[in-house]
Amino acid sequence: QKTGVCCVWKPLTLCPMLFVSSRSHSLQNKDSLVLTGHTGVINDICWNPTNPDQLATTAMDGTLRLWDVRSAQCISRIALKDNIDGVNLAWSPCGNVMTCGNKLNQLVTIDVQKMRAVKIIKFHYFINEMAWNKEGTYFYLTTGAGDIEVRTWPDFQKVRQVNAHPASLFSISINPNGKTLAIGSSDSLVSLWDMSEFVCLRTFGNLTNLVKTISISHDGQFIASGSEDTFIDISHVETGENVATLSCDATTNSVAWHPKEHLLAFGGDKDKYGKQGIVKIFGLK
Fold it and tell me: How far apart are CA 282 and CA 21, in angstroms?
């Protein structure tokens, strides 16, 4: 019956190209740690790109929290203005800035060092996940109209707008190689785009429901996609071939690859056992 719990597992020793759910292993206390503090369902998680021992979470309790996974402690928190729940998180490549999109279609810019909001931009249309390019000079935003907006950073001027899907876009992930990006849509498709020409290179069609979250691994090899389906699809970026399928007990709200290893963190809605606010991390060897 606990709410707002973030669980982090050490990587298990797995067979090549194989994901294993927790039901196949009996995890002892030494294999896991629990990050507690949130009082609502966790909406999004994000690793610090410059410090792999830190991750950030936002939840349906109006807060954003920064965690040290070595000590299992919340090292900083911010109460979002008017206790508006954060929905999406993005962390800049330099590690100094985070953005948080909320339910009122506001984009909150957060100074990580001071852990306070420094700017709030209100949109008059639906905005969803966002991401920076590898250099941190451009900011990509997905919208409810099926568009990708490209804006300069930090002045936030729109320089390009591409209608990528006929349905709403919900998720985005930038390939660490800086050449491609992936987006997920309510039409159940994930598409991979060339960032220089904005040409669609391929689509991934293994999901059957709204694609709520996607993430490309640190080496650009794998893309993880989560949706209202009760599984996470892991596919090869270059070929589109399904590599593995990770079973889940509920809708997946967020997936995030570790910035240096094949570790995938994911969290979602309340599962069939009534548990919520839990983030799990599994390893791919």
Answer: 8
Q: Which residues contact 102 (CB under 8 A, 6 or more apart)?
A: 80, 84, 85, 86, 87, 108
The pTM for the full model equals 0.84
3-state SS class at 81: helix
Q: What is the pLDDT along the chain (285 residues), one digit of tens a residue?
A: 556 666 665 544 333 322 323 333 333 444 445 677 888 888 888 999 999 889 999 988 899 999 988 887 899 999 998 878 999 999 999 999 999 999 999 999 999 999 999 999 999 999 999 999 999 999 999 999 999 999 999 999 999 999 999 999 999 999 999 999 999 999 999 999 999 999 999 999 999 999 999 999 999 999 999 998 989 999 999 999 999 888 887 888 889 998 888 888 887 776 666 666 667 777 755
Rounded Cα gap, residues 194 and 152, in angstroms: 18
Structure tokens at 11: 């990587």
CA angle 8, 94, 139 (to 5 degrees): 100
Give the residue ranges of DSSP H helices in the chain: none
Residue 243 CB contacts under 8 Å (≥ 6 apart), including other chains: 17, 222, 234, 235, 236
Q: At which residue do the structure tokens 């203005």 appear?
A: 81
